[in-house]
Amino acid sequence: MSKLKLLKSKTSRTLVLLVVLFSSVVTLILTAIQLHIDYKDGINVIHQRITQIKLTNIESITQALWTLDNFSIKIQLDGLSRINDIIFVKIVDQNKKLIANSGEINTKNTISEEIDIYKNYRDKQTLLGTLSVVATKENVYQKLIDTVITILISQAIKTFLVSLFILFLFYYLVTRHLQKIASYSENLDLSTDAQALVLDRKKPDVYQNDDLDRVVKSINNMSTTAYNSYTRLLKNQSELSNREAQFKAIFNSISDAIVFANTERKIIQTNPAFYSQFGYSMDELEGNTTLMLYANPEEYQVQGKKRYSKEATPKSSIYEIEYKRKDGSTFPSETMGHAVKLSDGTPIGFIGIIRDITERKNAEKERIVLQNQLLQSQKMDAIGQLTGGIAHDFNNILASILGFAELTMMSLEKSDEHNLIPYIKNINTAGERARTLVAQMLSFSRSTSGSPENIELPLFIKEVTSLIRPTTPTSIDIKTNISKDIPLVYIDKTQLHQVLMNLCINARDAIENNGTITIDLSYEVDSKTQCNSCNKSIQGEYVKISVSDTGSGIPADILDKIFDPFMSTKEVGKGTGMGLSVVHGILHKHNAHITIETKLNAGTTLNLYLPPSHNITDAMPDEKSNHISKQDGKGKHILVVDDEKSITVLLKDILENYGYKVTCETDSSKAFDIFMSTDFDLVITDQTMPETSGIDLVKQILKTKPSTPIFLCSGYSESINEEEALKLGCRKYLDKPINFQSLLKALHDLFKNESA
Amino acid sequence: MKNSYMVIFTFLVSFISLNCNSETRLHITTGFTSPVSDFYSDVLKEVDKRLTEISITFDVLPAERSLVLVNQGINDAECCRIPVVVTRQYKNLVPVNQSFFSARFSAFKNENNAVIKTWTDLKPFSVGSVEGWKIAVLKVKEVKPAEVHIVTTPEQLFKMLDHNRIDFGVVGYSSGLKIIADLKLKNISAIEPPLIEKPLFLMLNKKHKTLIPTFNKVFLEMKNDGTIDKLYKKFKSSINK
Q1: Cβ–Cβ of A68/B132 closer than 8 Å?
Q2: Which residue in A59, A334, B106, B109 has the most C-beta neighbors within 10 A?
Q3: Do both A124 and A54 map to the same domain?
Q4: Does residue B29 surpass a pLDDT of 90?
Q5: How many domains does chain B have?
């Protein structure tokens, strides 16, 4: 055991240091007490000497003073000044005048005492003078210094020896064991099951259950427990790391923005989606509250009280709110937010999961627009089909009425019953009016055929204006504003004429007395508006015809109904209510649209948007190749099957008029036999028939002669549509009532292709 | 009622009596020793008799102490001094104008044969004197003899002289003779004539300045009526004994 080893222990060093320190302090305190006592004693000795002077010398000094024997006084003072510690004595008279002195004061450490000297004279104490005695304390101090040196040296030696002994003792009994314990602890590897700690003691039994033994047992127990805990900890840490990785992956991969704020609502953490949604990096967010995210700062307070206050429950809730991005733009969101609390209820922050629902909102808006369009379209289609169906039936009926009225007229002209002719004429006139009305209804329902062509609108507008002028009161002025470079439009001229006439008549009727009708013609390269009748958006190139009046305007409550058939604001008998319905039908048949601008008592403007013909080149027929002539049929044999005889008759008349050979059959059950009995170039069959349906007939025919061209006509049957018909093998699907122009064109195309 | 009158009467009588008996009490001291002090005592007793308004007591003190205490006002008068000498040091002393005694300082010799006629003749010798004997001490110090010994009492001086520790002692002539007689010193003798003779005056403390005329008057009366002479003769006879 070397000295170095002894001092190596910090505990030993500290112990020795403390022992030395404590011993020194005690020594110093005791020395101080000792010095104090010695000092007191020394001072007392001085005082005793002075007292002794009083007792011994005062009497003789008094006598000498009384007799003013200065010589004697001087001798006595010299004697006094030679006493130990007395360095100076003097006597002054009653007037403080110096009588004699002896010695000198050569230090500041003195004790002085003045003794008044009285003489009892005539029964009174008469002051003769004052004896001053000055004693030095230097001797006392010197003695004290000697004492201090002696004590300190002796105590230092004692303390050194005692400390050395304690150091050794402590090392042997404690420090070396502590060092071993420390070394054991430092080298303890928790990943392995360590050996038990054993101290190096010669007589272990003697020390059994002493403090160190208990420490060793505790350390051994602790190391075992620590090993077990560490093993568990490693396992848990591994699981925790996996979970953390999973959580991080989820946190980072979620497309919704996630923000975690502390209880002061300062932003603590966000996920990558947050950056992409808001544009803020975590550095930019640091130290800021979520206030910076709110589009409306008041919402910050509202949500704070509602969801993010300390009192708020941690229950999640989803709410919609608008946020602001870094660039200042805002976006709607669906946010799930709640307070985050520990298991004991202590709030630690708030979490918000923010989903940008801009696209959903836009989709919803678009859906609503489309829904409205669809509803409008469906409504107009439904009305159109209804109108068309009725008109078609009425047309058949009227055909019969007028036909038979004509036959009756011919018969009556040949007979003598001429008085009946006016009646028949009235029937005929009424029938003609009904035909006109039905024609309008068919126009609305798109059932009427048209012959579109390229029209130069400036000329056409002038032509229409000239036609309207005679039927318009002179109090109404008619103006036209026609722009230059108006492209051609591809439309049925007659129908467009009807459209403009209807609009001008409406304009005229809207003006009570004086006013102006203005027809503007312009070309818009980039129109952006919405059709008021079909609700579809109008975008792109359009030729715009605007018919404006200075009339009474259209009330808002009927604005959305003005395109409905039979909707009229005019007096009974003055209008059919079909004017704008016909306009709607014609325009949309030609992919055109209409918008309305109206103001009560100020006037109305109806804008027609017609696609320029260069945009619909593909749809335009080749004038030459598509020309349908009366000899177009070339004797092609067509079988027409329809349970409505008038239809078969009408089709027969029309088709034969164009050179086709037509065989008609109203009984569908016989139709197949007729087909099999003759070679037909084409079969036109209705779908809805009492015995055999059109589909069944088609199947039968195609099964026998698959190459047979078949046109399937359907009124409003839900059993088949165009796609199904074509899939079945039909060459063409025709809506009823049949557009004969379309039919003729289809036939022309069919046979032209076959011949080619 | 009768008792009440008696009390008032007694009070008035006492009051009047107190006022009638109000006299000035003077304590006079001297630094001279016997027989001079005895002479002074006799004179002052006579003064006390003659001055009904003044009551005098007398006391003998060490010569210097006597002056100190009068100067301090503890005692009332010092009998008697040479004013010029003492008033330099003791400012509170004032003399009366009438002197009834003169101080004579003589040099006393032991068995030596030196001839001393003036103060300067003392120069080569060892000379002693007594503290409080102002003139003697001053003169001795002026001369600056070979040795000077100022002792407290004349007895000390004469003993020293007797033991040849000094050559000459300068003290009051009368006092010296008295001490020689008292101590039975055979080898000591006064050198005739005295070296100096100066009239002495009663020195009053300043607070008794108003009494100067009274003392002047009484001393003059005593001189004129032969009382002083009578008492001086008594003093001389005591020395001669």
Answers
A1: yes
A2: B106
A3: yes
A4: yes
A5: 2
| Number of domains composing chain A | 5
Residues from chain B that touch A126, judged by Cβ atoms under 8 A, are 69, 74
Residue ranges, chain A, pLDDT below 50: 1-2, 447-449, 617-625, 717
Same domain, B229 and B178: no
- By Cβ distance, the residue of A67, A94, A122 closest to B152 is A67
Q: Do residues B117 and B134 share a domain?
A: yes
Checking if the pLDDT of B2 tops 60, the result is no
B131 touches chain A (CB under 8 A): yes
Q: Does B78 share its domain with B143?
A: no
ipTM score for this prediction? 0.70
**Residue A416 shares a structural domain with residue A525:** no
Determine the structural domain holding residue B228 and report its residue range: 24-100+200-240
Q: Which of A467, A231, A232, A266 is nearest to A350 (CA)?
A: A266
Q: Do A68 and B64 touch (CB under 8 A)?
A: yes
- B65 interfaces chain A, CB cutoff of 8 Å: yes
> How confident is the prediction for chain B on average, in pLDDT?
87
Answer yes or no: is A325 within a domain.
yes
At A271, which CATH number?
A: 3.30.450.20
| SS3 annotation, A461-502 | HHHHHHHHHHHCCCCEEEEEEECCCCCCEEEEHHHHHHHHHH
Kindly report the length of chain A. 756
In angstroms, the separation between the Cα of residue A127 and the nearest Cα of chain B is 10
Residues in A closer than 8 angstroms to B91, CB to CB, are none
Q: Is A60 on the interface with B (CB under 8 A)?
A: no
Distance from CA of A99 to the nearest CA of B (A): 13
Residue A587 is part of which domain span?
A: 449-619
Nearest Cα of chain B lies from the Cα of A134 at a distance, in angstroms, of: 27
- Tell if the CB–CB gap between B72 and A94 is shorter than 8 Å: yes
Query: In terms of DSSP H, where are the helices of A297-420?
Result: 297-303, 358-414
The answer to whether residues B80 and B143 belong to one domain is no
pLDDT tens for A188-235 read 887 777 688 888 877 767 777 788 888 888 888 888 888 888 888 889
Min Cα–Cα distance to chain B from A75, Å: 13
pLDDT in tens, B35-67: 889 999 999 999 999 998 899 999 999 888 899
- In SS3 terms, A274-293 reads as HHHHHCCCHHHHCCCEHHHH
Angle between helices A211-253 and A176-186 (to 10 degrees): 20
Q: Same domain, yes or no, for A133 and A62?
A: yes
CB-CB neighbors (< 8 A) of A70 in chain B = 131
Sign of CA dihedral A442, A447, A453, A454: positive
Domain CATH number, residue B114 = 3.40.190.10
Q: At what angle do helices B212-224 and B227-240 cross, to 10 degrees?
A: 70
* DSSP letters spanning A421-475: HHHHHHHHHHHHHHHHHHHHHHHHTT-S---EEEE-HHHHHHHHHHHHGGGS-TT
- DSSP symbol at A306: I
Judge if A457 and A585 occupy the same domain. yes
Among A180-184, A398-402, B20-24, B104-108, the range scoring the smallest mean pLDDT is B20-24
At residue B6 the predicted structure's pLDDT band, cuts being 50, 70 and 90, is low
